[in-house]
Amino acid sequence: MSSSSTISSTPPSKADDFRSEAVPADAGAVLRLVTETSVFSNAEIAIAEELVLEHLNRGAEASGYYFLFSDGPDGLEGYTCFGPIPGTVRRWELYWIAVDPRRGRSGLGRRLQRASEEIGRAHV
Q1: Which residues does residue 36 pair with via DSSP β-bridges, in sequence order?
Q2: Helix (H) or strand (E) holding 53
Q3: Each residue's pLDDT tens digit, 66-79
Q4: Which long-range CB contacts under 8 A does 54-59 form with residues at least 24 apart?
Q5: H-run or E-run covering 36
């Protein structure tokens, strides 16, 4: 068996399915996505965008906000925002999860949640 066909004994991370690095366009994409879900209030929608901007300006460690993004052919299809809970030891919280309504019932939300949980567990 050649080395290129060797199967790793380590299963791939669920987080590998998603992008974790935020880019400036993500602020507007998150704003669009959470608006289209018709679930969040105007104040919540503004906060969702603010958290992306804070992450971009300060980074994950300093801001406390980590993200996973699911990109599709038409742009952002889903995302999560999560991070350590201030004042606690080894506790993380899922702050935001949103999936494009056109992707509803596809399992994307569940996969994003599980991948976010995996990252949180790896940091504790």
Answers
A1: none
A2: helix 42-63
A3: 999 999 999 999 99
A4: 55/22, 56/22, 56/23, 56/24, 56/26, 56/27
A5: helix 25-36
d(C-alpha 84, C-alpha 70), whole Å: 21
In 3D, which of 89, 90, 88, 93 has the Cα closest to residue 117? 93
Proportion of the chain above pLDDT 90, given as a percent: 71
**Percent of the chain, pLDDT > 70?**
87
Residue carrying structure tokens 């906060």: 47
Tokens representing 50 are 């603010």
Q: Which of 83, 91, 107 is nearest to 20 (CA)?
A: 83
Tell me: the pLDDT tens digits for 90-107? 889 999 999 999 877 789
Per the prediction, the chain carries an average pLDDT of 87
From the CA atom positions of the chain, what is the Rg in Å? 16
